[in-house]
Amino acid sequence: xxxxxxxxxxxxxxxxxxxxxxxxxxxxxxxxxxxxxxxxxxxxxxxxxxxxxxxxxxxxxxxxxxxxxxxxxxxxxxxxxxxxxxxxxxxxxxxxxxxxxxxxxxxxxxxxxxxxxxxxxxxxxxxxxxxxxxxxxxxxxxxxxxxxxxxxxxxxxxxxxxxxxxxxxxxxxxxxxxxxxxxxxxxxxxxxxxxxxxxxxxxxxxxxxxxxxxxxxxxxxxxxxxxxxxxxxxxxxxxxxxxxxxxxxxxxxxxxxxxxxxxxxxxxxxxxxxxxxxxxxxxxxxxxxxxxxxxxxxxxxxxxxxxxxxxxxxxxxxxxxxxxxxxxxxxxxxxxxxxxxxxxxxxxxxxxxxxxxxxxxxxxxxxxxxxxxxxxxxxxxxxxxxxxxxxxxxxxxxxxxxxxxxxxxxxxxxxxxxxxxxxxxxxxxxxxxxxxxxxxxxxxxxxxxxxxxxxxxxxxxxxxxxxxxxxxxxxxxxxxxxxxxxxxxxxxxxxxxxxxxxxxxxxxxxxxxxxxxxxxxxxxxxxxxxxxxxxxxxxxxxxxxxxxxxxxxxxxxxxxxxxxxxxxxxxxxxxxxxxxxxxxxxxxxxxxxxxxxxxxxxxxxxxxxxxxxxxxxxxxxxxxxxxxxxxxxxxxxxxxxxxxxxxxxxxxxxxx
Length: 656
Description:
Elements: H1 2-16, E1 23-25, E2 30-33, E3 39-46, E4 52-58, E5 72-76, E6 82-85, E7 94-100, E8 106-113, E9 126-134, E10 138-142, E11 149-151, E12 162-168, E13 173-179, E14 188-192, E15 200-205, E16 212-217, E17 223-230, E18 236-240, E19 245-247, E20 257-265, E21 275-279, E22 289-291, E23 297-302, E24 308-313, E25 318-319, E26 321-325, E27 331-338, E28 346-350, H2 364-373, E29 378-381, E30 384-385, H3 391-400, E31 410-418, E32 423-427, H4 439-449, E33 457-460, H5 471-476, E34 483-485, H6 496-506, E35 512-514, E36 531-535, H7 543-552, E37 555-558, E38 561-567, E39 575-578, E40 583-591, E41 597-602, E42 605-611, E43 617-624, E44 629-636, E45 645-647, E46 650-654
Parallel strand pairs: 20-27, 28-29, 29-31, 30-31, 33-34, 34-35, 39-46
Antiparallel strand pairs: 1-9, 2-9, 3-8, 3-10, 4-7, 4-9, 5-6, 5-8, 10-19, 11-18, 12-17, 12-19, 13-16, 13-18, 14-17, 15-16, 20-23, 21-22, 21-24, 24-26, 25-27, 28-36, 31-32, 32-33, 36-37, 37-45, 38-40, 40-43, 41-42, 41-44, 44-45, 44-46
């Protein structure tokens, strides 16, 4: 301990030699390792008036002596180009690097990658270090919502206290997510507000040792908040739902201006929840995504003296709207035009996604906001679980369903029952079966639990995912399975999940396809990029009606087209009695991409192809003969067998 104190004293003494310079030092200690904590990004804001600065790393050498690949420290300029490899590691000393800005002001990034131990050693290699800057710059981190950035107890003699400054825009809610050790007497949290702030604080989540959160709410939380973590005698993880900047200094140079972004319909009046992707030449290295919510408005933080590109979208049914903006604006308005139009009675949703309560990046509320902003009518929250211990799943439901409003937008509870041989989504509820249960038994349990008042459904997920290699075999052993998830695989491997569905249908099983994103991060994989459309007719939009429609197959699957198909007036999931030589059918498609062809699949074979020739809208009525069994339709782009949209089957019954 005495040696560590001497080291920390030496660090402070080195800093005191440069009192004329601005000095910012990270907490003791940051780290990367060879596990899932292998990468760390530290951002550095360089104002336009700064020409040079010094970037230092204390104890840059790896902790372990035997490694195959050392840690990597690479500095990137705002345009994303690598500027310098920090390749002069020292043990127990500062490695300092003089950086010539060359006019490249804005957000720089230091990316640190962890060491790699020798293969077969079964050990985790680690690198603990400090980072500092000397000069007129701001080092900071930008945390994702999930508490995935870990901080270590001090390794170089500092007191067991970490202090951060959080730059908060004019929000009315701030949520910090933690994973702390189970012991209640360590890793204490104190959050200090700006003097003028009036607020309420509450703790929630699953408690110590699990994802938990500290939420602050008030009329306007704008300002610099101080976060102090004391008694740091074990490691802890930190995340921020709003993905705000956390600075290593009490007085950041970086100043933002806050502009209101409004997203409305073509009429210029109707608020529409939407997604906004925001970038500029100075902030390209920071991902910045905002959802405008039910109000159709949100604050966005912009740096002065730069031009931003803001791309506003609302899923593939709407045309993206791009605008250029500066921090001199007060209000920005984006007008969203609908390009795909559904007939009355059709609704769409995403039935597979994850939150911070399993392995997702975002909170349940954020996933609900994303569903709204991507133009969906419903989502199903499906965090991983298996067995009776499902409190994390129930907590996710409780948090996400705040935004659920019947007949407007639904957050439907669900669970991804996850075992080694299969993953299966329970829709509109959960199950407490043990993790040893077979899919066949699980399906029977769900059918038994399902009632008219509370219908449940279940689907086998991603049957060709490498993590469950026996899933196709499991599907083939489960004749009561109502739903099979399609297209949740590498597109180069598709549509083999559809071929599996067709094989099961050819056995005479009443099983239907469903598609969803399985997204774990709403920024990098948009909610609703793949979606299932359900037909409710005149029935209201409720979780019960959506669940029944999914189970009955009154649906089609889409990656960018609306496809409506009927035979003798019957839609997917219904039956047609073959009482004559040919059947009257109707096909209508509305697509965001040029359509090459429509295909009709009868009992697993393409029996009729309708060339479309690149149009985006197409409708046809004709009469064709079909064999008894089933028929469905799909729409495809040129030179691909992966559909833009596919219906579920209409069953064809032979007369005797």
